[in-house]
Amino acid sequence: MNENITRILKMVEDGKISADKAAELIEAIKVKEADTSQESEVCCKEKMFKVNVLSGKGDKVKVRLPVKFVKSSLKAFGKMPVNVKGCEGIDMKIITDAIENDIEGEIVKIKGCDGDDVEIKIE
Q: pTM of the prediction?
């Protein structure tokens, strides 16, 4: 049993608070615990930097990196932590700005004349 609930029940037993007041306090504890649980679920879902390349020849490349890692690499080295064939013509400033400003969703989508499709997103 939750330590706080045990304390509340002890206060009821000792006559320090009424059963109604104890019920209020226990309900408040449960609501707070539920809120905390939801917050931890949301914050623990880590954003990912995703690059998908489908070449005209049928080759597929999928790169998935945690956004925190990409941000650290940008700060430490001043460049992206990975080079992907098909992404050479993309203005990396757009991508670094999106990462640094916590933008989510599709950042770049390119359909090349040689049949290569490149998609970069943060989710």
A: 0.54
